[in-house]
Structure formats: structure tokens, C-alpha cells
Amino acid sequence: MDVYIITGASRGLGEALAKKLLAKTNVLFCVSRTDNPALRQMAEARQCPLRCIAYDLREVEGLEELMRGIFAEIALLHPVHGITLINNAGMLQPVKRMENATASELIGNLQVNLAAPMVLSALFARFSRQLSVQHRMIVNISSGAGKNPYYGWAAYCASKAGMDMFTRVMGLEESAQPLPVKVVSIAPGVVDTAMQEEIRKASREDFIQVDRFRELKESGSLLNPDAAAEKILEIVARPDVNNGSVLDVRDFL
């Protein structure tokens, strides 16, 4: 069987990824602030073991206890062929000029978007190395905002740029190990999720490019979450994707 740990799986792209992975041969641990009863029902119908864990990723210091508990359950599963961590959870706010952002807003963003994925990845590598598992992988869901600046998105852009760089560094480190964890970062493109709704509601004063994102919705240019999830899983499974790769779904369309 294959085990997947997915953050932010209660809605949007995370939910779509979880749905794609619901199968008899998989076991899913979904970590999010809110429950998803529909996902539970679908897992039951597909006879896929699913564990939904309520957790706020801003509580970074509690992540070790969280992961220790998850891996205690994984250790009881046999046989396990592969374990994958998907760092999908993310937040856009604050959307405003830097001088108007508060310390708590900036810290909260960086805790969810960067600190939590880094801590989870470190714990994943440490705990999974103690198991006899053939395949171990970390998939970081990034964004084009990690490469391109957006007015009013300083925290989001910085956190995604940080995610891409920590992917490169961890991939470099793992490549030197005898049994490496494969670490990749992938930007899903502009996906039709609640985050996009949030973007379209922003004022022009806070986000001067808001009209472009409204036009993407009106023109039907947003990528369906299910299609994005399917493409992400297809790309990261490719044998020619190197450790530490920073990818973009749009390069494969």
C-alpha cells in the first residue's frame, strides 16, 4: 500500500488531490483546520482508509507531536511501499502594501506557508527514515507568485519563493543520502479555488492587478481543481523529475 499525508485537504486543490488518491491500495492522513464529511463518505465508498486530523498549521511547535502520532499509525501498516507528504495548505492574506501589514498578519502567513512545510518536511524525512519503505517523497505545492512579484502579496510571494528554495536545498541534501527522500515543488497554475475568490474580492488599492484575475474567471481561463490535481500527480510521478526540482504545471500542458 501507499500512504499519503496531505495538508489543507478540506477544500480546493487539497481536496481534489485527496479525492484522486482515494483507493483501496492507499491510506490517507488529511490534516486541515476543518473537517470534510463528503471526503469521508467518498473514502468509505471506495474502501480507502482515511484519517482526518483537525490542526491549525500556525501552531508550528506542535507539529512534531502531530507527525509522531501519524507515523506511529503508519508503523502498524504492512506492507507499505511508499510514503508521500503533500504540503498543500496555504494562505494568501495579508493582501495589502507592506507598510500596512501587521506583524501578526505577516507571521501567520509565514507560519502556514513556509515554516509549517519546512518543519513537516524535516519531521517526515526523520521519521520515515526509520521505516523500511522503498519510496519516500515530499511534494510542495508552490505558486508562480514565488517567481513573480505581485503588488500587495509580499508575504505570499516571499513564502512561496522560500518554499521553492527550501525544496532545492533539501533535494540537494537528500541526493547525498543512501536512501534519499525525493523532494519537488510544483506550481499548479491559476486554479479555480476559494483562494481565487479571495483574490477577486480584493480592492484595487490593495491589489492593483485584481482586474486581471477577475478577467481570468470571466473568460473561463481558470484550471479546474480536479484537472490540476490529476496533472500534479502525473508530473511528480515521472522518473525524469530530479530531486530538488521546482516545476510548473503549465510547462507540461
Automatic annotation (TrEMBL):
<keyword id="KW-0560">Oxidoreductase</keyword>
<dbReference type="InterPro" id="IPR036291">
    <property type="entry name" value="NAD(P)-bd_dom_sf"/>
</dbReference>
<dbReference type="InterPro" id="IPR051721">
    <property type="entry name" value="Biopterin_syn/organic_redct"/>
</dbReference>
<dbReference type="InterPro" id="IPR002347">
    <property type="entry name" value="SDR_fam"/>
</dbReference>
<protein>
    <recommendedName>
        <fullName>Ketoreductase domain-containing protein</fullName>
    </recommendedName>
</protein>
<dbReference type="InterPro" id="IPR020904">
    <property type="entry name" value="Sc_DH/Rdtase_CS"/>
</dbReference>
<comment type="similarity">
    <text>Belongs to the short-chain dehydrogenases/reductases (SDR) family.</text>
</comment>
<dbReference type="Pfam" id="PF00106">
    <property type="entry name" value="adh_short"/>
</dbReference>
<feature type="domain" description="Ketoreductase">
    <location>
        <begin position="2"/>
        <end position="193"/>
    </location>
</feature>
<keyword id="KW-0521">NADP</keyword>
<keyword id="KW-0963">Cytoplasm</keyword>
<dbReference type="GO" id="GO:0006729">
    <property type="term" value="P:tetrahydrobiopterin biosynthetic process"/>
</dbReference>
<dbReference type="GO" id="GO:0004757">
    <property type="term" value="F:sepiapterin reductase (NADP+) activity"/>
</dbReference>
<dbReference type="GO" id="GO:0005737">
    <property type="term" value="C:cytoplasm"/>
</dbReference>
<dbReference type="InterPro" id="IPR057326">
    <property type="entry name" value="KR_dom"/>
</dbReference>
